[in-house]
Amino acid sequence: MLDFSSLLLAAALSGTCLAVTMFAIWFTAPRARFVLTVACGILVLVAHVILFWRYTKEPDPLLCQIALALLSLGFLILCISAMQYLGVPDHRRAVVPTLAAMAICAALTFLGLDGVGFIVTYATVTVLLSTIGAMFWVNGSHDRRILLVVSFLSGTCALSFALCGMVLLAKAQWTLGVAPDNWAERLNSVVAVACMTGLGALTLSLHHLQAQIELKAETMTDPLTGLMNRRGLTSLHGERSFGPFTAIVMFDLDHFKRTNDIYGHPIGDQVLCRFAAVIRKYARTGVDAFRLGGEEFAVVMSRMTEERAYDLASKIGVAFGTEIVASPLGPLRSTVSGGIGFGGTDGSSLDEVLAEADAALYAAKRAGRNCVISRKRMGKAEPVEPALRSA
C-alpha cells in the first residue's frame, strides 16, 4: 500500500510526463494554444505537489502559502485553457475571483489560520473544476461522449477536493501547523492522479478532433471569399430532399472574363469578394451561401415561397449593382445574373434543383443578363438595375 508521500510523488511524476507530452504536441501544432496552456497549468500543479510533499516533511508557513497558491493557480490555468478551447470570452470572470481567493488564503495562512487557508483553497479548486466540467457540457459542440467524460472527470476531481475541505471543516481544524493527512487527502491524491491522467488523454483527443474539424472546414471553404465551396454544398445538402419551400439560387457574374482581361485578375478577385460580401449582408437563418467556382455562386434558401426567394435574390443583385471597385482604369461596377430552382412536392435531389436553377440562370443570360429568373418567370426577365459601367 502506497503511503501519502508516495502518492504525492506519483502525482508529480504523472503530471510531469503529461506536461512534456503536451509541450511536444504544441511544438508540432503551435496554433493549438490551449494545449500549451494545459501544459503550463499541469507544470504549475507539479510544482505544487513537489512543494506540498516538501511541506509534509518540513512544515513551514511560507512553504504552505506558496503550495496553496500554486494549487489554485494551476487549476485556474487549466480553466483558462478550457475557455480557450471552447471560445469562451472574458477570462477575467475566472481570473479575478480566483486571485481574490488566493489573496484571502495567503492572508489567513499568514495569520496562522492555515486550516482555513486549506479550506478556502479546496473550495476554490472545487469551483474551478466544476466550472470546467460545466463549460464543456454546455458550450461543447463536438462528440458529446467525449464531453461527457471530460465533465465526469472534472466533477469527480472537484468532489475529491470538496471532501478534503469538508473533512477539515467538520473537524474544525482552523489551525494545523502541518500538512493535513486524512482519508480524504489520500483519496484525493489517487483521484487527482487518475483524473488528471484521463483529462490529459482527453485533451489529446480533443486536440485531434479540433484538428480534424479545422481541416474539414478548410477543405469546404473558398480561400478567396471565405464562403463555403462546392464540397461544402455537397456536404451540407447532398443527401437532402428539397421540398417546394426550399430554393437554390445560382448567380453568375456578368462578363467576368472580360473583367479579368481588361482590369486584371487582382481586380477580378476584388469583384468576387464584393459579391460575397453582399451575399453575407442578406444571410440569415436558413440561408447558406457558396462559391461553386470561378464566378459562379449558389445560395440555398429554406422555408421560402417563390416570391420571397425571388425578392431576396433580386435584392442581392440590386445591392451588388451599386458596388464600385476602384481600379487603375477608373471605377468599375459589375452586374450579376441569377436563376432560381425549387424542390418538388415529392422531394428533389440537390442535383435536380441545381439543374433547374442552372436552366433559369441561362434563361437570365439569354434575356440580356443583369436579372433574376425563376421557373415561373421564364419569359418575364426583369432587369435588376442598370449598371452605370458594366464590366
Describe the 3D structure:
With 391 residues, the chain is of the alpha+beta class. It contains 12 helices and 6 strands. It has a 6-stranded mixed β-sheet with strand order 2-3-1-4-5-6, with helices on both faces. Helix 1 packs antiparallel against helix 2 (33-57), helix 2 (33-57) packs antiparallel against helix 3 and helix 3 (61-86) runs parallel beside helix 5.
Uncertain segments are: 379-391
Instruction: List SSEs in N-to-C order.
Output: HHHHHHHHEHHEEHEHEE
Beta fraction of the residues? 5-15%
Average pLDDT over all residues: 85
Helix content: 55-70%
- Sketch the major β-sheet: 6 strands, mixed
Shape: elongated
Tell me the span between the first and last alpha carbons: 83 Å
CATH class category label of the largest domain: Mainly Alpha
Question: What does this entry show, briefly?
Answer:
This protein has 391 residues and is an alpha+beta fold. It has 12 helices and 6 strands.
Sum up the structure in keywords.
12 helices, 6-stranded mixed sheet, Alpha-Beta Plaits, alpha+beta, Rhopdopsin 7-helix transmembrane proteins, disordered C terminus, about 400 residues, 6 strands, 2 domains
Reconstruct the topology from this structure.
Elements (H helix, E strand, L loop, with lengths): L3 H25 L4 H25 L3 H26 L5 H19 L3 H26 L4 H27 L12 H37 L10 H8 L8 E8 L2 H8 L1 H17 L5 E7 L2 E7 L3 H16 L14 E7 L7 H17 L4 E4 L7 E2 L8
Parallel strand pairs: 4-5
Antiparallel strand pairs: 1-3, 1-4, 2-3, 5-6
